[in-house]
Structures are given as structure tokens and as C-alpha cells.
Specification:
41% of the residues lie in helices and 14% in strands. It is built from ten helices and nine strands. It starts with 5 loop residues before the first strand and ends in an 8-residue tail after the last helix. The mean pLDDT is 90.
Length: 259
């Protein structure tokens, strides 16, 4: 039976942020994702006040236009409008009307890589007040979620990355508290593939083995190396957690509605 594969984080829309630079690049990315087996892609351009002013109506229009182009080109990929919302003081202004994912009404959020608990904890209250749930993008790349696994030493870390050691206990860590409070987390396939370095890969595997992730995404910005990254990332997830779990995370919240 063919498995549903959903990309929950992708910068596919052309010339709207730092992702695909033009329509040709968008089409290349879409073909790679479709040929690899993805059936649905959440188009999540950056939303950063003063930098990428991608309000929901603009993203919805761009997604509908791109969907028509894909249909005409015979690329069987369903696109859904979304956004990657930057976690700063302007976030509460960006959330009303934002496209949501799943029954939990998740909205994709990017925490600054150096963010600490003082920024992350109020975020949950903001979302709760609006009836939304944060889906935090690539937490493995954020220093606020870095667990204390370095105490194991080089041999211990290597054993962990190679799957020879059980995952460290995350009880009491910031990411565990947020997960228990209802936050969801999206892992980057490139992190599992080692594209952001060994420490990020180590954290991604740790979070995977502790059940932190609800879904996965490519976070693709261009077609270059995309196929190799998808293959390596999915293989790493399947190796660490099993093929069934890998496809469970690739399905995530389900396909959602078309535009």
C-alpha cells in the first residue's frame, strides 16, 4: 500500500522569501519531492515583521497559483498554505488568521537559535489565548533545547549517535516541559542527514528516541542536493526508530484540506 508522505516545512513558493528564487526552481523542487514520494507539501514561507511580510492572503494566493502550475505540469503534489512565524515580540500580531494544521490548530513557529526559556514560555500562553497550538520548527537547531548529553564524553556521544546507547532521559528539560504542555515539534530531515553538523544530528536523534517529534519536514529552500538530503534523512530516521515510525512521522497530522 502506498504511504502518504507530507512535508510540513518547505520554502517552495517562488520569490516570496529566501527559498525558491523563481518559478523554475519551485518546479524543480516540486518534481523532486513528488518523485521521492511526497503527496502533500505545506508551503511555509518566513513571516518576519520588517523582513518577510507574508500575510495569510498573500501566501494563500501564491499557493493557489503554484497549485495551478503544478496541476498543469502534471506534478501530483497537493499544496497547503502555511507560514514559518518568527518568535519575537511581533508574533502575537502575526497569528490571527494564520493557516493552521490539524485538529489541534497548529501554527509553525521558528524560535531564534539562541532563544531561552524567557522567550519560549510566554509563547505558549499567547497561543493558548488564541486557541492555537505551537508547532516548533527544527528544535534540534535551537540552543534553548540543548540537553546535557555532552557529559557522556566523546565515546558516549559516538555510541549514542550510532544507536548503541539508549537515549538520555529528557525529564525536566525545557523541551520536555513544552511537549507536556501541549506544544508540537517538527524535525528537519536535513538535521538527521547531518547537513547542520554532528551536534545537531545528535540532538535530532535524541529527540526522536524520546518521542518529541510530531512530524517531519524538508525545510527545503532550493533543489540543489534536495534528493540526497531526503534520502539520507529518511534513512537515518528509519534506522534509529524503525520504518513504521518514520512513515508515521512523515504522515504527521494527516493530509489536511485543499485550498
Amino acid at each position: 500500500m502506498e504511504k502518504e508522505m507530507i512535508d510540513y516545512h518547505c520554502h517552495l513558493l517562488p520569490a516570496i522569501d529566501d527559498g525558491a528564487s523563481d518559478l523554475d526552481e519551485s518546479l524543480k523542487m516540486a518534481r523532486i519531492l513528488s518523485d521521492f514520494g511526497f503527496t502533500t507539501v505545506h508551503c511555509t514561507p518566513h513571516r518576519i515583521r520588517g523582513c518577510y511580510e507574508n500575510d495569510p492572503p498573500r501566501v494563500i494566493r501564491a499557493t493557489r497559483t503554484m497549485q495551478g502550475i503544478l496541476d498543469h505540469a502534471g506534478i501530483p503534489l497537493k499544496l497547503l498554505a502555511g507560514g514559518e512565524h518568527y518568535l519575537d515580540e511581533f508574533l502575537p500580531e502575526l497569528l490571527p488568521g494564520a493557516p493552521t494544521i490539524g485538529a489541534a490548530k497548529c501554527v509553525l513557529v521558528e524560535a531564534p537559535f539562541g532563544a531561552g526559556p524567557e522567550l519560549l514560555r510566554p509563547m505558549l500562553a499567547t497561543f493558548t489565548r488564541l486557541g492555537l497550538t505551537p508547532l516548533i520548527a527544527h528544535p534540534e537547531r535551537c540552543k534553548a533545547f540543548e540537553p546535557a548529553v555532552k557529559e557522556q564524553g566523546l565515546r558516549g556521544r559516538l555510541s549514542f549517535v550510532l544507536g548503541r546507547q539508549k537515549a538520555a532521559d529528557l525529564e525536566g528539560t525545557e523541551i520536555a516541559r513544552l511537549r507536556q504542555s501541549g506544544c508540537h515539534f517538527q524535525g528537519n530531515l536535513g538535521s538527521f542527514a547531518g547537513y547542520y553538523g554532528s551536534e545537531v544530528k545528535e540532538r535530532a536523534l535524541l529527540f526522536l528516541r524520546n518521542g518529541i517529534y510530531s512530524c517531519l519536514g524538508s525545510d527545503a529552500h532550493r533543489s540543489e542536493q534536495l534528493k540526497d538530503m531526503l534520502a539520507a534523512g529518511i534513512a537515518a530516521v528509519a534506522s534509529a526508530a524503525g520504518e513504521e515510525k518514520a512513515f508515521e512521522l512523515l504522515r504527521g497530522f494527516g493530509g489536511g484540506d485543499t485550498l
